[in-house]
Automatic annotation (TrEMBL):
The keyword Protein transport does not apply. It holds the Pfam family GST_N_2. It comes from Phenylobacterium hankyongense. Coiled coil: none annotated. CDD domains: GST_C_Zeta, GST_N_Zeta. Residues 1-82 form the GST N-terminal domain. The lineage of its organism: Bacteria, Pseudomonadati, Pseudomonadota, Alphaproteobacteria, Caulobacterales. GO terms for biological process: glutathione metabolic process; L-phenylalanine catabolic process. This is Maleylacetoacetate isomerase. Its EC number is 5.2.1.2. The keyword Isomerase applies. Belongs to the GST superfamily. Zeta family.
């Protein structure tokens, strides 16, 4: 199967998909969509995703959007290693953490919301920073007690929740959010920092990064 990921290096939603593809050992190529220049509003890109967002995954000419939908499709298409546990209750617990991150935290802090708050609502940078800290902090406070005691969110190997949490940690660090109240979340960050799939997916490792890592 030929896969192409339409991505932006600092998009946390794209980052989730890169991690999952790497964990699965699936080959793919990347096409950059520069969100800062408005490439997501180009008519050619809107044919892939009328919402004008990344990521978009092409799979043999078919397109998938929304990172969680892509992750679940990928887990069914390439079952090993699994991103979700077999037990239905355990799967629901993992999905709950993923939903907190992808539905409650991320949408309030992504580029288009920040741009609207600044350009339309006139929010100064200090208010934007406070907004970001507030919603990431609240979300992480909800995630922290749900995590298990090992290196990863659940079980002894990375899965769906880790694919979602690690990019959100990257965003939190980027915006200067204090992570000291969240030892389990910091533990996952430490584990990811030493895992090849997460290292390769890191924004600074992407070819379109401002300063790509060597």
């Amino acid at each position: 199967m030929r896969l192409r990921l339409h991505s932006y290096w600092r998009s946390t939603a794209s980052y989730r998909v890169r991690i999952a593809l790497n964990l699965k050992g699936v080959d793919y190529d990347t096409r950059t969509v520069d969100l800062r220049t408005g490439a997501q509003r180009d008519p050619a890109f809107l044919e892939f995703n009328p919402e004008g967002l990344v990521p978009v995954l092409e799979a043999d000419g078919r397109t998938l959007t929304q990172s969680l939908a892509i992750l679940e499709w990928l887990d069914e298409e390439a079952p090993q290693p699994p991103l979700l546990p077999r037990d239905p209750f355990a799967r629901a617990q993992v999905r709950a953490v993923a939903d907190i991150i992808c539905c409650d935290i991320h949408p309030l802090n992504n580029l288009r919301v920040q741009t609207w708050l600044r350009d339309v609502n006139g929010a100064p940078e200090g208010q934007l920073t406070a907004w970001t800290h507030e919603w990431i902090g609240r979300g992480f406070a909800a995630v922290e007690p749900r995590l298990e005691a090992g290196d990863w969110c659940f079980a002894d190997a990375p899965g769906l929740a880790d694919c979602c949490l690690v990019p959100q940690i990257y965003s939190a660090v980027r915006f200067g959010v204090d992570l000291s109240p969240f030892p389990k979340i910091r533990r996952v960050a430490d584990a990811a920092a030493g895992h090849p799939a997460f290292i390769a997916a890191h924004p600074d490792r992407q070819p379109d990064a401002d300063r790509p890592a060597p």
